[in-house]
Design goal:
Length: 180
């Protein structure tokens, strides 16, 4: 039995809406157990039997996309990975208290050229750090105020599908689902 946390892209945005009860039912329909949702932004914890995370991501994506009628990307992490992501210090120097830290999830490790592309967008308002399958993004002002937010601009820059969560959500998930 493997516990995992799914981070879904495109849930309850862009005119689409699914209740958390419906979302739980979609996961349970695939034989997953102990399914729990965490806030309405597409975070789902569950337990699965066997299989790789990559194959589980693809099965979930296919099922959710077919069931909901629009494309949904799924990014799986174990509770240990979520705890490590939430605790990772992405920047060597402390950042100003203003602003927020966001984490973008990808399905596979990001190639080195992604950091180079992101470096071109570093400014007093934005700092980026790639670490394996995540990108840490410190934003001095609101996320929605960034020229990279909306319309998939950030994903285009990364060159792969991604979904973003703030570090507060990750820390709460890490506390709720500690590694076993």
């Amino acid at each position: 039995m493997t516990q995992a946390i799914a981070f879904l892209r495109a849930i309850n945005v862009g005119g689409h809406f699914v209740t958390m009860d419906q979302l739980r039912q979609h996961f349970e329909a695939l034989g997953l157990s102990q399914v729990e949702t965490f806030i309405n932004s597409g975070n789902v914890a569950f337990v699965a039997r066997g299989g790789s995370a990559a194959s589980r991501e693809k099965k979930l994506e296919a099922h959710l996309t077919r069931s909901m009628g629009y494309s949904i990307s799924v990014f799986l992490r174990t509770p240990a990975e979520v705890a490590a992501i939430a605790a990772f210090p992405p920047f060597s120097q402390p950042l100003p208290a203003a602003g927020g830290l966001y984490i973008a999830f990808a399905q596979a490790p990001l190639p080195p050229d992604v950091q180079t592309r992101l470096d071109a967008f570093q400014s007093e308002y934005d700092r980026f750090r790639v670490n394996q399958r995540e990108v840490y993004w410190w934003r001095a002002t609101g996320y929605s105020e960034s020229p990279l937010s909306g319309s998939g601009k950030f994903e285009k820059l990364l060159g792969v599908p991604a979904t973003v969560r703030n570090v507060t959500t990750l820390r709460k998930l890490a506390a709720k689902y500690p590694p076993t």
